[in-house]
Every structure is written in C-alpha cells, then in structure tokens.
Design a protein that fits this description.
The chain folds into 2 domains: 156 residues, TATA-Binding Protein, CATH 3.30.310; 89 residues, no CATH class. 19% of the residues lie in helices and 36% in strands. The chain contains 4 helices and 14 strands. The strands form 2 sheets. Strands 1-2-3-4-5-6-10-9-8-7 form a 10-stranded antiparallel beta sheet, covered by helices on one side. 26% of the residues are buried. The N terminus is likely disordered.
Amino acid sequence: MNEMSAIGPSRAFKSALGAGLLLASLAIAVGSLPADSKPKAPADPRPTQPAVVFQLLDAQSSPAVFSRANSTRDALGFPTGVRRTGRRVKDSFQQAEFDEVDELDAKGDLVSLTQFEPSGRLRVAVRLDQSPHPATRVDGESASQAAQRGVAAAGLLVGGPRHVDSDVATDGWTVRWERTQNGVSVRGDETRVQVRPDGSIQSLARIEHQLAAEPTRRLDSDQAKRLVTNQAHQWFEASGSSYTIQKMDVEWVAPNDTFGSGQSADPQQAYRLAWVANVKPSGPAADYAWLVTVYIDAGDGSLLGGDIVE
C-alpha cells in the first residue's frame, strides 16, 4: 500500500460568553507581566498523527470508482484528460473518507476531478480548465436550468429552497438548494452548482450530514423561548447587559460545545432537531458579541451549543 500523509490545520474553538469576558480580563493581567515571567505551555509529548492519508487506486483494482468518475465527467460535460489517477482519501481531521479520480492533461496538469463517498454517491465534481467569457452571458433562469440538468445527470435529487446568485468573481452564477427533512431546514447542508457565463457547469458539490431520529414530542415555541430567555439571562445579567430575542426557528443542527454544554464537536455526529434562537445583546456585552445563536434540543430542551458572532 502506497500512502502519504499531511498535517491538517488547527481548529479554533469559541468559549461561552461569560468565560470569554473572564479570559479577556486574564489576558490583560498576563500582558502586564515581564516576558520571562509569563507561564509557558508544556510541550505535547504525544507523537503528531497524520490528518490525511491516501491510498493510490487504478482502473484495474477499482473499476467501479473509475466507471462512476467517467460517467459523471461526461454527464457534466467536463474535459477528458489524457490519463487518470485515483486515490482513496481518509481525512481524520474532518472524519471524512472518499474516492477521488483526477483527469490530467499531457503536461500532468489537473483539468477536472470527481470525488465519491464510499457508498458511491457523488461528493464533489469540478473542472479546472479555462472558463470562456462569451459576449452574451446566460441569465439567472438559464443558469438555474443548466444547474438542474447537471444535478439530475449526476444522479442527485434536490429539494428545498433554491437560490440563484450572480458570481462576481467568475461572472457566472451560483445555484444552490438548501436541504430539508420533513419540511425543516438542515443547517448548512446544501447542493451547490457553479455555472459558467456560457451556461456550462463549473462545479457541483453536495454537503449532507446524518440526522438523528426526530423527538417523539416537540417543544412548542413558548416553551423553547422560556428556555432561551433563562439561558440568556444567566449570561448577560452579571455584566449589566440586556438582550432581545430576534428570531426563533426549528432546524436540524450540529451539536457543539460553544457554551460548555458538553456536546461533542465530532463532524460525523448526527444532526439533531433544535429550536435555533438569535439573541442580540446590548450594553457592555455588545462589545464582545454582536449576535449569539443558541441551539435548544426540540425534544428534551437541553442546550446543544450554538455560535457567537463577535
């Protein structure tokens, strides 16, 4: 087995608002100490583990992978290379595993690639040749239709709200479908298609996470709002700040430990149904947080995490 590895980027973690205020005060105090008196972090004795490893694949050993790649390439109208290479990628940082097939030109430069989950479902497809800029650019509706045809040709089903936006960087269009489950939005999940100015497909990407079972009983909006209010009151009262709850909706979300809730940040953890509330602080807390988003489990009312926009 022929493998290579690379160290992945570091993660950034957000703390709870109250802890953030405390840490800010501590940072000021530490900053006033002489440089040689500041505490130093001990070296990590653990060996560095590779974040990404891959195994080379070829058409003889993995015919199904290369066959899927050829079919997808042709369905999307991507260029054909003079040779192909393949690999099975295991990304331990993102907890992802997928097969990738690259199309290379005579110079060995990448002209297109496709990625598939182990199940065979398309993950990403992108072409890297020069994009033409025709005198007449297709309109948004034509771009949307081209994206719909590309998604269907790739064997994907889409639903939920569709958004069509002009892409200033490429002069083309971005067409995306938000994922929904039983009429409820899955936060961050979508199928996205980049359409070139001439109406051809530049790229197709799908983000989709596993969903936990729906709770047998769901909190109503009044119950959820009381829980959010109680939580926000605990955060902001000590600093003499106030707040308003701007918006609340039910969504599928990824649990996290933003507020010290003890939730795992495992990328492969199943999404859970939650009430999502946007809380706008005012007063001293507004100097540290522009908006606080809170996830409340739609079944048992537990805190699932959220986000802080500074």
